[in-house]
């Protein structure tokens, strides 16, 4: 898999997590622990995307 394809895949996962977080937050009985874990996963993916983009621009 090329670096750009990997970045695109991570961006899609990031977007899916964003959508899932918004959906969870719209429920009156939202599970705060679950939302926090989703946000952590989203942040890890965002950091990985930034790292890969930095790596790609340095190459």
Structure description:
The protein has 59 residues and is mostly helical. The chain has one domain (3-58). The chain contains two helices and no strands. Helix 1 runs antiparallel to helix 2. The longest helix has 27 residues, at 32-58. The chain is elongated and about 45 Å long. The two termini are 17 Å apart. The mean pLDDT is 94.
Question: Which tags fit this structure?
Answer:
59 residues; mainly alpha
Chain-wise SSE layout:
Elements: H1 3-26, H2 32-58
Helix pairs in contact: 1-2
Total tally of structural domains:
1
Rounded mean pLDDT is 94
Please identify the oligomeric state: single chain
Biggest beta sheet summary: none
Total count of strands: 0
The fraction of residues in strands falls at: under 5%
Report the end-to-end length measured between terminal Cα atoms.
17 Å
Ranges with pLDDT <50 over ≥5 residues?
Answer: none
Q: What percentage of residues falls in helices of 4 or more residues?
A: over 70%
Structural class: mainly alpha
How many separate helices? 2
Give a brief rundown of this model.
The protein is mainly α. It has helices spanning 3-26, 32-58.
């Amino acid at each position: 898999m090329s670096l750009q394809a990997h970045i695109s895949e991570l961006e899609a996962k990031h977007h899916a997590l964003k959508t899932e977080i918004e959906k969870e937050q719209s429920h009156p009985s939202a599970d705060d622990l679950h939302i926090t874990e989703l946000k952590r996963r989203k942040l890890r993916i965002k950091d990985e995307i930034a790292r890969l983009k930095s790596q790609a621009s340095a190459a």
